[in-house]
Design goal:
This protein is of the alpha/beta class. The chain has a single domain, classed as Rossmann fold (3-Layer(aba) Sandwich). It has helices at 3-7, 27-31, 33-44, 61-73, 128-139, and strands at 11-14, 22-25, 54-58, 76-82, 90-97, 100-107, 116-124, 143-152, 166-171. The strands form two sheets. A seven-stranded mixed sheet has the order 5-6-4-3-7-8-9, with helices on both faces. The protein has a two-stranded antiparallel sheet with strand order 1-2. The chain is globular, with a radius of gyration of 15 Å.
């Protein structure tokens, strides 16, 4: 499947979640078996030879893409969740929002010292959440292999916040 065919499966939703925002909705792609498979392959492809130990998916759509990417790479899968959502001892990292600060967490046993880690999500915008996930990996002693996204919103500059290998399939 070509990049243009994948792009045709992303729905643009104007003024969501608030006026002036153009939301890139991946749910049509998720409903298309060939599109979903192609998206997973495209996000995973650059890291197939990287000997990844853990794939971390960022809440929530990163969970959808992360688990099959972990399978494709022969790696374990871990969760990066919003604060207070995990039931056990966790590492946490904060990041800035437009108006305030938020926090993400992962269980302390998700990444061990020396683990090679790939972070995935459906979309990168400003990069704050992804940068906090990178911080979690490093806090746990893991080695960043990279970050891979289906969609990158270029104008928001998220890529610049990540000091690791970076891959995106579709750019807007």
């Amino acid at each position: 499947m070509t990049v243009d065919q994948l792009r045709s499966l992303i729905r643009d939703v104007p003024d969501f979640p608030k006026e002036g925002i153009l939301f890139r909705d991946v749910t049509p792609l998720l409903l298309d078996p060939a599109g979903l498979n192609a998206a997973i392959e495209a996000v995973a492809e650059p890291f197939k030879q990287a000997k990844v130990d853990r794939v971390l998916g960022i809440e929530a759509r990163g969970f959808i893409f992360g688990a099959p990417i972990a399978q494709a790479l022969g790696a374990g899968f871990g969760l990066v969740r919003k604060a207070g959502k995990l039931p056990w001892e966790s590492h946490s990292a904060s990041y800035e929002l437009e108006y305030g600060i938020d926090r993400v967490e992962m269980h302390v046993d998700t990444v061990e010292a020396g683990h090679r880690v790939l972070i995935v999500d459906d979309l990168i915008a400003t990069g704050g959440t992804a940068a906090a996930a990178v911080e979690l990996v490093r806090k746990a002693g893991g080695e960043m292999v990279g970050c891979s996204f289906l969609i990158e919103l270029l104008a928001l500059g998220g890529r610049e916040k990540l000091d690791t290998e970076f891959h995106s399939v579709l750019t807007y």
